[in-house]
Inverse folding.
């Protein structure tokens, strides 16, 4: 008897959960007329399901929010695809708009990198150096500091090599001018040969 009542309750709960909107639920219930003998198995209850499907539950409308990328995200994307002037503008915009952001050190580093990579003029390289130096002074514990110092060190070596190259070119030019002047003196000091 106990098995039958559990099965009936289970069927009722299932049908109530699936068909809340329908007003009537028909579940066949076996009513025993006499107590079964102890050796006989209890009769099995098979629930009948309705022929129609239940109506789907109405879902709440999903709010659609469009998230536009920040200028930092735009700068990173532009940097990754090699549009360095555009990336530099996005990083500068981010730095001016977010004075207290925790990602300012990253923006300064990538601003310096963007300026250095776009650098077809000495002005861009000076701006890159300024961004790296600003990163080092404003964020001494930044994870980008070591890379910024390394890049500044390389830039100093490049500038020293350029200065050495200019000095060598000036020496070569002076030596060439001196050689040319000596050739002219030599030609003037030799007597001209009479025509034969």
């Amino acid at each position: 008897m106990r098995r039958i009542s559990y099965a009936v309750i289970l069927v009722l709960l299932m049908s109530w959960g699936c068909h809340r909107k329908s007003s009537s639920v028909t579940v066949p219930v076996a009513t025993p007329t006499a107590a079964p003998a102890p050796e006989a198995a209890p009769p099995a209850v098979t629930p009948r399901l309705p022929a129609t499907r239940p109506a789907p539950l109405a879902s709440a409308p999903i709010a659609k929010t469009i998230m536009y990328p920040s200028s930092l995200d735009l700068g990173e994307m532009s940097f990754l695809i090699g549009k360095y002037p555009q990336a530099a503008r996005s990083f500068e915009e981010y730095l001016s708009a977010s004075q207290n952001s925790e990602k300012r050190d990253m923006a300064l580093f990538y601003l310096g990198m963007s300026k250095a990579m776009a650098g077809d003029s000495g002005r861009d390289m000076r701006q890159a150096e300024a961004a790296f130096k600003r990163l080092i002074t404003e964020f001494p514990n930044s994870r980008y500091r070591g890379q910024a110092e390394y890049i500044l060190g390389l830039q100093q070596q490049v500038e020293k090599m350029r200065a050495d190259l200019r000095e060598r070119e000036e020496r070569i030019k002076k030596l060439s001018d001196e050689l040319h002047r000596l050739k002219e003196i030599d030609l003037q000091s030799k007597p001209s040969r009479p025509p034969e």
Observations:
- Residues 18-27 have pLDDT under 50 and may be disordered.
- The longest helix spans residues 145-189.
- The radius of gyration is 44 Å.
- The chain is about 60% helix and 0% strand.
